[in-house]
Amino acid sequence: MDFLPKGRLDAFADGVFAIVITLLVLDLSIPQVFENLMPALFQQWSVFLAYIISFAFVGSVWITHSSITALMKQETPRSYRLTLLMLFFVSLIPFTTKLMSFYLSHPPMIPDFHGMDLLSMVETVNAIARSALTAPVTIYGLDLLFTSVTMNAIMKSAIRTPDMLISEAAKNELSALQRRQQYGVIIIIGTLICGFILPMIAVFGYIIVSILFFITPTIHIAKETLRKNS
Amino acid sequence: MDFLPKGRLDAFADGVFAIVITLLVLDLSIPQVFENLMPALFQQWSVFLAYIISFAFVGSVWITHSSITALMKQETPRSYRLTLLMLFFVSLIPFTTKLMSFYLSHPPMIPDFHGMDLLSMVETVNAIARSALTAPVTIYGLDLLFTSVTMNAIMKSAIRTPDMLISEAAKNELSALQRRQQYGVIIIIGTLICGFILPMIAVFGYIIVSILFFITPTIHIAKETLRKNS
Amino acid sequence: MDFLPKGRLDAFADGVFAIVITLLVLDLSIPQVFENLMPALFQQWSVFLAYIISFAFVGSVWITHSSITALMKQETPRSYRLTLLMLFFVSLIPFTTKLMSFYLSHPPMIPDFHGMDLLSMVETVNAIARSALTAPVTIYGLDLLFTSVTMNAIMKSAIRTPDMLISEAAKNELSALQRRQQYGVIIIIGTLICGFILPMIAVFGYIIVSILFFITPTIHIAKETLRKNS
Amino acid sequence: MDFLPKGRLDAFADGVFAIVITLLVLDLSIPQVFENLMPALFQQWSVFLAYIISFAFVGSVWITHSSITALMKQETPRSYRLTLLMLFFVSLIPFTTKLMSFYLSHPPMIPDFHGMDLLSMVETVNAIARSALTAPVTIYGLDLLFTSVTMNAIMKSAIRTPDMLISEAAKNELSALQRRQQYGVIIIIGTLICGFILPMIAVFGYIIVSILFFITPTIHIAKETLRKNS
Lengths: 230, 230, 230, 230
Prior knowledge:
The structure is a homotetramer. Chain A is an all-alpha fold.
């Protein structure tokens, strides 16, 4: 078994993560209006939303990958290739997020809700969402799925290959992490299926998860400040 | 308490800083004129100005972040997430700077100053600046504020979490840095409020601070050269 | 003989590799259609194909380079310059791949195959491919060739320069790697010549090799899962 | 005197160098022609030339910077700022190179040389070059000058500040490097002045130097191969 250095895999992965996470910032553009800047900026909401979602998901993949490599002492040609495969799917996240966000903000038509009861309204909205959002939501979900599956494969491979981990304790820790991550894979598959029937739910699921990821540290800070002051 | 490696957070942050600091260089374009290149280049002054301001502020955030992590020996999942949040606001600096610089160089109208006394002129300029610049200056200021506040949260979190810092001396040093940085937060809040009433003052405040940041090392060199030669 | 640090060469190379490998993701664009998203996405197949091929080849160059520097303990000004030269050719891979993929997806004309026998059809297709693809396939092949030749020169230089490698064993390992890599150079030269006579074969050769590179880890995983379950 | 870690300065600088060196690859575009690809590619020669010159100069600055930091053991807030200032001028190299290359390939008018003697022809060409090239060549030269001067300031500062270098021997080595680099500064100033009178000479000076930088390792290899085979 040949071994490859850990440092270069980390540095390369960090470079790719850094580029991918900032990619969508290039899409933010200056509105060429000289009055009423705020409404013009708000019209770009789908671009901002895509940036936040993409930043949050790429960020969480980066944290997971850092947690894994923290337990390793060396890499193999195979772990290098699995990481490349994982990074390939990560590098598509800005694109698939933009796709989903674009179709969310450009509904094909706004129906006439006049005289409808609540159930018919929900059904109508869902029918429109299904025709317009199923494809982008599924593409987005598949991208997340492939990212998670390759990440899981990196963990499994590290657990099975002798001499890759720093210690026996690290093996147990990584096994626990890998089992937990498998639940994540199952949740993504569930959301994928849900996206076929109720695409709006799937979209909002992704949005809420990503915003929660962002807000969590802020909530922690607020809590601590409160505890400290009381 | 789980710990995460310091090296990857540094490498990722350095990658994001490097990308963000060079982003606005993409906006410099070749004027398609074959005579009088210099005036055509000077017409792009707002793009150059945005690049200098953005470079200076991102650079100073990078130095601050380096000073902080120099005192740490390891990181936590929480410090990873706080750093991601901070980098999110940093990654918006080129955009918010461009927004401010664009509206500074595209005033909505040039009034007729003929026959005005000085006070009326100042008032007229400020009224125009207020209508055109208040929104972009406030967005820019909020971005700086969120960057500073999350940076402060990173420091506070490192001070409170046991075993994150390299030594007890580092704790005192970081506490001093954090208190000093809190004054920075207060100054940004002050400039933000000032931006509502006198937006021109706020804008020039930001420009002067960023240019000072750039010129300081040059002044040091000049001084040393003088001292050496005398 | 002056020596230069290994760390900076690795970090810089990883940065360039990370940028180059993600370059073509910028070419993926959102189709501006509100119905039938899937066919609109499939029309972009040449862009996706270019991204996959480019990602796979840059990835494999990165793995080779990591394998080489893993055996070194320090660098010289000359190895720095050879690495720069190699990275120059690597940085052109996204462009040359795009060029090949573009002309593959935009054949100059679709002939009337009506009433042709099989041999004439093959000959006609090849004649068209030759006129349209020979130039881009040759440019692509030359880029791969120069990348391989400079990589080989980096290995040779490291073998000959005293005190660059970590041990005598590393010298033998690198010599073996260098000889194996020379066969790669010969294969590329062969494909280059083939590209003049049968450009379609050369193109599909490149595509198959790059897709194989990507699929290999997945096949490994599938095999392991089967072995584990049986 | 506060010290800052060397690792982060190196990583950040390497990130910026990696981005800046690959920036102009974004300017290479696929010619949208379906016949005669080669002439269409050759029409872009000024873009390719700008890429090669820019790659070569940024590469040589990177090697110089690596040679300097190889002699240091720690950094100061001041060396961080000087490095930022140097990287600012480096980040403008792709733009200033493109500017020079664009005006070189777009002469304002081609005069009628019919019936002119040699001296008049040279004078006419120089007069045209002066009107079209003086501004871009001077801007390019100033960018190189500021890069060299800030690089020199980094070296001087490291020599004077106690405890920044790894050893006393490193101090002598860096002093020698700094003196040699001062000659480079003088040569750039000379070329700058020459650019006012004979801009064509200055342009070709820059092009030859940058191409030599690229070809040198290849010549070394050829020489070695010859020596080995004879």
